[in-house]
Write a structure and sequence with these properties.
The protein is of the alpha+beta class. It is 60% helix and 11% strand. It starts with 33 loop residues before the first helix and ends with a helix.
Length: 395
């Protein structure tokens, strides 16, 4: 019996064609001729490989049918196979071509890569530019579970925004363009590595299970990417506010310092011009700002006379600068104190002179500490103690 649709031979008991699936009803049975019956019998023998017949042994068939030898049977089978072989090879070739034409990237591992990426597989595989990476920037990396790359990118963005603010716009434009072109090949590279790792780790598993594992480990993660990006936005907002406050503080700080330093150097030069005739040399000068009291400025000169170091002390009184004392008589008064010949008035003068020396050392030490804090950008308060060298004084 032959299939009415495709012409393939069927066994007696078969109603549905095993090649094309067409249903063959019993109406065609009366059209069968003897040759078809013999062919069917031969087909049955062809399926039964355990029949052993000698070369010239006859096969008995119904009385009104002719006899067929094994030699004739084999000849017929060869003829039939020759007719069908090219057809089958052609069909296989067509099927392969259809598979290749439907997906040019198809390979054994590619189905796992497709499962890992998800529904955007073909778009990411074939496109040279990713519009979402261009628009969302590092957020899209997090969305695609490229967490390490995404976090590193956000950190770099944060550092540029804080320390190189004037170049941030240039950085941003270059970044979004580069990410738009680079994301797809980079993502495919990472996915291939991850799929290789999965195949190695789950070696021996069936393809269905492997595809399911790739699908679960790959794809996208909306919640975690939003959490990370939200934390990034909080950090960058806090940094911008902090920088703004610090900048305002620094502007105020440097404005006050500039005013204080300018006033101090003016007063020091004024005192130096008044005292330079009295002393051989002036080593340095100090200035202390006292805005909380009536005496706004204290001026100290460290001078040299008769091989002795002498400190000269001035202070401001409203709009004037007034000489207060110096340590020229310090050694004499100390001798008198040791000899117990010092008067009460001289005791008071000695106490004031010693205080000048102590104040000079204290102001000098505090000024160095303030300079150190400023250099380390840890200044907390306004600078109020200044040291001026001889070169600064005479400049």
């Amino acid at each position: 019996m032959k299939c009415k649709k495709c012409g393939k031979r069927l066994r007696n008991s078969e109603k549905f064609c095993t090649y094309c699936g067409y249903f063959n009803d019993a109406q065609n049975e009366e059209n069968w001729n003897n040759e078809e019956i013999n062919d069917n019998l031969l087909e049955e023998n062809w399926y039964e490989d355990d029949i052993d017949v000698k070369d010239e042994e006859e096969i008995v068939i119904p009385s009104n049918k002719k006899k067929t030898t094994k030699k004739e049977q084999s000849t017929k089978k060869e003829t039939k196979s020759k007719k069908e072989k090219p057809k089958k090879e052609k069909e296989v070739k067509i099927e392969i071509e259809e598979i290749n034409s439907s997906d040019e990237y198809y390979s054994e591992k590619e189905k796992y890569v497709e499962s890992y990426i998800g529904e955007d597989y073909k778009l990411i595989k074939k496109s040279i530019f990713n519009i979402w990476a261009f628009l969302l920037n590092w957020m899209y990396f997090l969305y695609r579970k490229l967490f390490v790359t995404g976090i590193i990118g956000l950190i770099i963005t944060l550092l540029v925004a804080i320390f190189y603010t004037k170049y941030f716009l240039i950085y941003f434009v270059i970044t979004i363009i580069v990410l738009g072109f680079a994301f797809n090949p980079y993502y495919i590279f990472i996915v291939n590595r991850r799929v290789n790792k999965i195949l190695k780790e789950y070696e021996g598993s069936d393809p269905f299970s492997l595809q399911k594992i790739c699908n679960e480990l790959g794809g996208v993660n909306v919640v975690l990417s939003l959490i990370i990006y939200f934390i990034f936005l909080i950090v960058i907002l806090f940094s911008i506010v902090s920088i703004s406050i610090n900048n305002n503080h620094n502007v105020k700080f440097w404005k006050e310092n500039s005013e204080n330093k300018a006033n101090c150097i003016s007063l020091v030069k004024l005192v130096y011009n008044q005292e330079k005739q009295n002393y051989v040399k002036v080593d340095e000068a100090l200035c202390k700002v006292n805005k909380a009291v009536n005496t706004e400025y204290e001026i100290y000169l460290k001078t040299l006379k008769n091989n002795k170091t002498i400190y000269v002390y001035y202070e401001t009184d409203k709009e004037y600068i007034v000489f207060k004392n110096n340590t020229e008589k310090l050694n004499d008064l100390i001798k008198k104190q040791k000899n117990k010949t010092i008067t009460s008035e001289e005791e008071k003068i000695l106490s004031d002179i010693k205080m000048i020396t102590l104040n000079y050392e204290s102001i000098s030490k505090k000024s160095l500490e303030e300079d150190s804090l400023i250099n380390k950008k840890k200044d907390k308060e306004e600078k109020v103690n200044y040291i001026f060298s001889y070169q600064e004084i005479i400049r």
